Amino acid sequence: MPSRDITEDRHDADPRPRDITDMSSDSAPQPDKAHGGHDNRPPHLAHHFETPKQQFESGKLGMWLFLATEILMFGGLFCAYAIYRGNHQDVFLYGYGALDKMWGATNTVVLLASSLTMAWAVRAAQKGQQKLLIAMLVATFMGGVGFMGIKAVEYKAKYDHNLFPGQQFNAFYYESGKPKYPEKLAHAIEYIDGRNAGRGGASHGTDGQGGEHSDAAPAPGEGQVLQGAGHQQAEADAQAPAAVIVTASFAPPADVTNLAPPASPADAGVLDSAIDHAGVVQTPHAGHTQILWEDLSQTERGKVHIFFEIYFLMTGLHGLHVLIGMGLIGWLILKARARTFGKEYFTPVDVIGLYWHLVDLIWIFLFPLLYLIH
Amino acid sequence: MSDAHTNDDHNHGIGHITPVSLLVGIFALLIFFTVLTVAVTYVDLGPANIWIALGVAVVKGALVGLYFMHLRYDSPFNGLILVTAFLFLAVFIGISLMDTGEYQRNIPPPPTVRPVTG
Hints:
The complex is a heterodimer of chains A (about 375) and B (about 120).
Chain A: H1 2-12, H2 16-25, H3 31-34, H4 52-87, H5 89-95, H6 101-126, H7 130-160, E1 174-175, E2 178-179, H8 182-204, H9 209-212, H10 220-239, H11 241-247, H12 254-257, H13 271-282, H14 298-301, H15 304-337, H16 347-371
Antiparallel strand pairs in A: 1-2
Helix pairs in contact in A: 4-5, 4-15, 4-16, 5-15, 6-7, 6-16, 7-15, 8-10, 15-16
Chain B: H1 2-11, H2 20-40, H3 48-68, H4 76-100, H5 114-117
């Protein structure tokens, strides 16, 4: 549509050359005169657009192009996720035990609700409902606050249990076959094993207690036995790494360790075999969700920290986007209070709305991939 | 919907105004799918679980894109940009996934004999 407008207009009026000469001769900016011929141009219509609709469509097109690059940026992380999960299913099944399904679901609802209010804000702007627009923008902003608040609670729990990424923070780092922080590792194993054991039991009995209240201590009976096991295991790993490796009949040279799949040498090879191997390991534990530290092979144990790196990179980049979105919405609130937007001009509301919805869209995929591993 | 669309077009021609009932309806559907995708994790369906979770995510994403992001009423070119981005993402992830398996067979098997010799 807009393209036809341009050609028709140029055909009979051809305003461009005149525009240019006017601009160069008149040093003082006189927007109305500069666009000779168009007396009733609205003040927000830039001189290189013919109609408000064309300006709106162009702005939106530009935003969509930007969103495409955003998708590709996150795509790199999704790719890392796919490769890593494909090759190390057990590591994912183990590591996701540290995440809280219910916090994740709550955050999904919070973000969806803020998407609703954002879409409603766009509608209010389109209809010129100033008060409703401000109310909806504030509600959307509060959604962002809620999301980041819950994220902060979750991150705090990870920090407390030494699950942050980075060699200084993550308990699961190994150095030449030895855990770098044996004590922290023992604690982290206790924490995750306790949660995973609760989760496994829950999936067979009455639904989800383990998953839902997983912030609290692990299930009393079973959990404690396993905690002890985790402790001993970690200490054994720390004190006599060589012996452990030998008894595990798996002692690859250091440079191969990173690449070799956890499977036995016979079926080392194709991606599928790694998945098969995961399946084999899982079967003894009936519930697919239940993987404990003792179920992981020596190579897999050394890779658990990578799960947390992927988790923090993906949610961290997403959280950064939420923060940026909140900043933009804050700016929209200021503008809306000054009555900048109305039926004829609401492009910033619409375009920032698109950004906010994209952030929501990415979370819609992050949530099942990180919190609902099965 | 199409009525509202044409009316708005006649009024001032900028953008499509989505009715509140539709927005709230889409939100209700999104919440329903969120509950569904969490509920499914309590049922063990083997490898189907991940595909159901991803399928639900795609449906939710489509709802957000089509209605909250106005794609259904927009110039199709905007949707084309989005679909193209996903297409290239699929190419990127697909080829990378094919590739990860390819080097495994070149890796020498872990020397399980080593404890014996050394």
